[in-house]
Design brief:
By secondary structure, the chain is of the alpha/beta class. The chain has one domain. Helix content is 48%, strand content 13%. The strands form 2 sheets. Strands 2-1-3-4-5-6 form a 6-stranded parallel β-sheet, sandwiched between helices. Strands 7-8 form a two-stranded antiparallel sheet. Helix 10 links the parallel strand 3 and strand 4. Helix 1 runs antiparallel to helix 2 and helix 9 packs across helix 10.
């Protein structure tokens, strides 16, 4: 059996806390969710901190760190509350959010609409996406290289990998895997790729992915065994919450064994405002926990394979 599995996490846009502080809070959220599903697996992860690796790319991109203390109380709160309550579910699925999603989706299909409704956050996000897509000063190459290092090390050591990409981190992960399999043809494989709050369903993003100009199987990476996508109700980044209709061809071509889409309710709240896109809320969710537990039980010696599969609907 495979041993010593590795979880690699790639965060999204915007400055993040100093790497070790950021990693500690991410792992704390993941462990809280896993603890509710399987205490043995949670303890296994606690005793093996080397099993969770963070690709801390945002400082190279922005040149600054975010103060973790601004988020600490909100992180504690989302850990303490097992799931979204009725009011939070209603807020995530509110008419206002549905209308806003409709406007964003329209702009994704008709980009000339963007200047007419883009607020400061959208403008900053688009600026950062363009910088990555243009590879200004080789910044995209630098970021992808930061992920390829632990992927190559895991492959050399024979460690199975669960690669988690949140938001823009899922794009970085996808591009890196495409390069490894299509440009350098390296024997680097990911046992499970987990995308969270991913913009990979957006046409704007898809037209800029590495391999987007290729046809057939060359369009996609060929080094992912399974792909699980998780999107939160009310998301404005994961506009297309179902990625199987965009990447399901990978399964038809034999590049993937399975593709799963799941929805959750993300109840992370910062300064009183619900943020359904927050990475901490994704990591603490039941769907994420069940996916991680199921994967670890399948990959790790000494853990019984008796865990139920992830739930398929919003939770």
């Amino acid at each position: 059996m495979l041993t010593d599995p590795l979880i690699i996490y790639v965060p999204g846009l915007k400055p993040k806390p100093e790497p070790e502080k950021h990693r500690r809070e991410l792992l704390r959220c993941l462990l809280a969710g896993v603890q509710r599903i399987d205490a043995d697996v949670a303890e296994h992860l606690r005793q093996r901190p080397h099993s969770f690796d963070l690709v801390a790319w945002t400082y190279d991109f922005y040149g600054e760190h975010h103060d973790i203390e601004q988020d600490r109380a909100a992180i504690d709160a989302v850990i303490d509350q097992p799931a979204a309550n009725r009011e939070e579910r209603a807020e995530a699925a509110s008419l206002r959010r549905r209308l806003l999603r409709a406007v964003y989706r329209a702009a994704d299909h008709l980009p000339f609409l963007i200047p007419h409704f883009a607020d400061q956050n959208i403008e900053i996000q688009l600026r950062d996406l363009r910088r990555y897509a243009r590879n200004d000063y080789d910044i995209a190459d630098v970021i992808r290289r930061m992920l390829k290092i632990p992927l190559r090390a895991a492959a050399s050591a024979g460690r199975p990998v669960l690669l988690i990409g949140h938001s823009m981190g899922s794009v970085i992960a996808y591009d890196s895997l495409w390069q490894l399999s299509r440009q350098s043809a390296e024997f680097v494989h990911v046992d499970l790729f987990m995308s969270m709050g991913s913009p990979l369903g957006q046409r704007y993003i898809q037209s800029r992915l590495l391999g987007s100009g290729s046809q057939g199987e060359l369009r996609y990476p060929e080094n992912i065994r399974r792909w699980v996508n998780v999107a939160a109700v009310g998301e404005l980044t994961a506009l297309d919450m179902q990625l199987a209709n965009d990447f399901g061809e990978m399964t038809d071509l034999g590049l993937l064994e399975a593709f799963e889409d799941h929805q959750i309710y993300n109840n992370f709240r910062l300064n009183g405002e619900l943020n359904v896109h927050a990475e901490y809320g994704y990591l603490v969710s039941e769907v994420t926990a069940r996916t991680v537990v199921g994967w670890l039980r399948g990959a790790q010696v000494g853990l019984d394979d008796n865990i139920d599969p992830p739930v398929s609907g919003p939770s």
